[in-house]
Every structure is written in C-alpha cells, then in structure tokens.
Amino acid sequence: MAKNDEYMQITGLLSAGQIQEGEEAIKRARSALPLPVFLECVGNVHFYKREFQQAINKYEEAMHADPDFDSARYHYLVAVQKEREGDVVEAFKRYQAAIEIEPTFVDAYVELGGLLSKIEDFEGALTCYTDALKLDPRDLKNYFNRAEILRALSSTDPAQYAEQYQAALSELESAKARLPAIDESAKW
User: Fold this and answer.
1) How far apart are CA 164 and CA 149, in angstroms?
2) Vertex 130, ends 125 and 135: CA angle to 5°?
3) Among residues 102, 95, 117, which one has the least CA distance to residue 3?
4) Among 21, 46, 62, 122, which residue has the fewest nearby CB atoms (within 10 Å)?
5) What is the Cα–Cα distance from 97 to 101, expressed in whole angstroms?
6) Crossing angle (nearest 10°) for helices 35-48 and 5-15
7) According to DSSP H, which parts of 102-178 are helical?
8) How far apart are CA 120 and CA 152, in angstroms?
9) Type and span of the H or E element at 39
10) Residues ≥6 apart with Cβ < 8 Å to 172
11) Tens digit of pLDDT per residue, the chain (188 long)?
C-alpha cells in the first residue's frame, strides 16, 4: 500500500517536532487515509513524542489491519531493541527493512551507521552517514558522524580517505557556524 502525500506531510510535521500541527493534520485527513496509514500516522505521533510502546502498538495494529502493510518506524524500534540485546544480525535486517520501506527515514540510516561502526564496517557506516547527510543537511550530528567515520578510515587508509576527511572537517566547521548546536537541535 503506497503512502500518500498526506502521510508524507503529516510525518514531516511530526519529525520536525510540530506535534500539534501533525495531530491536527491527521484529524483533517482522517477520511482520506486508508486505515493502516491512519494508524501508522497515530503511531508516528507516539514515536515522535518518544512514547515507543504506544507507537509499537499502533504500528502492529496497522500491520494487522492489512497484512501487506509495513511500517519503517516499527522495524526501526525493533532494530534498536535487537541491537541492545546484542542481536546485531537481526538489528541490521530491521534497519535495512526500515530503509527499504521508507527511504527518506533518516533515523534508520543514522542508527545503521552506528551499528556498522560498532562492528568496524567503517565503509558501510560512511555510506549510511553520507546518505543521512543528504537526507537531512540541517542536522549537525550528520556532519559530525560522517567526519568521525572518515577520521577512522583515514587513520587506517590515509591515501584513500585523508582528503575526504579534511573536506568533512571543513563541512562540519561550516555547518557549526550556521546550524544549531547538537544540544540545541534536540526536540525531545
């Protein structure tokens, strides 16, 4: 089931921290949204309020309403839990599923990059952090994560990565001058 423009608009509001506006948009679009999409939008409200169990419940309700329906944030939340439990393989699969379901869901790229970094797949992490930066160039953390991975790669293969690392440091410094500090950009 394709997620329509209303879904994208609502989710954009919620991910930008505009919870009340997102909730109002859900109410306005309720009759135009298929049931699973409506339930996922309600789940997304909980997700962005950091009410994760309530979010999971709504995502599961949405997937139960239509067996062909899937939710990126559901897989993301399961991946985070699996990663905490040490099940790296399942966490990797779930982050990948989240990205496949919703390729614009930047959080999945960031967390997958972190997972790959932990297992020292720095090239994979670089791909994730580069994708995250392309999706959200307004988040200072994305510049920082990319620079840190390039630092690690540069230390093991300076011929291939030193120049990219220096460029990433310059991009990070430029971003620091124009973007809110990492602490200030947190919406929760």
Assistant:
1) 11
2) 125
3) 102
4) 21
5) 6
6) 10
7) 106-118, 122-135, 140-156, 158-178
8) 9
9) helix 35-48
10) 140, 143, 144, 146, 147
11) 567 889 999 999 999 999 999 999 999 999 999 999 999 999 999 999 999 999 999 999 999 999 999 999 999 999 999 999 999 999 999 999 999 999 999 999 999 999 999 999 999 999 999 999 999 999 999 999 999 999 999 999 999 999 999 999 999 999 999 988 765 444 43
Amino acid at 113: G
Q: Report the amino acid identity of residue 114.
A: G
How far from each other are the two terminal CA atoms of the chain, in whole angstroms?
31
User: Which is it for the CA torsion 6, 14, 69, 110, positive or negative?
Assistant: positive
CA distance 13 to 60: 22
CA distance 94 to 108: 9
> The pTM is what?
0.91
**Type of residue numbered 188:** W
Asked whether the beta carbons of 73 and 105 are under 8 A apart, the reply is yes
Residue with tokens 């997620």: 3
DSSP letter assigned to residue 32: G
Q: Are the C-beta atoms of residues 181 and 140 closer than 8 Å to each other? A: yes
